[in-house]
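User: Teach me something about this protein's shape.
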Amino acid sequence: MEREWLEDPQAAHLLASCVAQGQHISVTEKLPIKLAIVDRRIALLPLDPERETEPVALVVHRTGLLTALVSLFEQHFERGRRLNLSGAEESAEHGLEAIDRQIVALLHIGLTDAAIARQLGMGHRTVQRRLHALMDEVGAATRFQLGWRAARVGWLPGGPDNSVEP
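Assistant: First, the predicted structure itself:
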């Protein structure tokens, strides 16, 4: 899915409940087409993606086109960043509060401080204050370093990385 969806708190809340139920959601900046795939058996493509008022879609059944669409979907899913809004898993293990894990996860997928604040229902300054506290905790002078070190200490999906420090 495209990152801009997460800037809408209602959509983000719905997605968070999907993730809590075990759905895997991958976030990317921009997708080439709107597409829905059901059990690798059917794909739905809007005939005119710019006109959302008319729900007319092309239904693609098992064909070479379906195989290509599934492959396109999988490529973009793998390139995207895994959405983790629960904030719960592994928090105690890494000494990170659930709210801070959510902030780091949303920052990781590219949301601004203001969008993070809206999504989590907190003030913009509160988000900035918590980010600065996290930066201090890992010894980061910049947000880039915070992201790098957050990945190294296991705060981000994908776990710790043993790469050389920047």
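Now, about its shape. The radius of gyration is 18 Å. The chain has two domains: 3-82, 91-152. If you'd like, I can walk through any region in more detail.
User: That's plenty for now, thanks!
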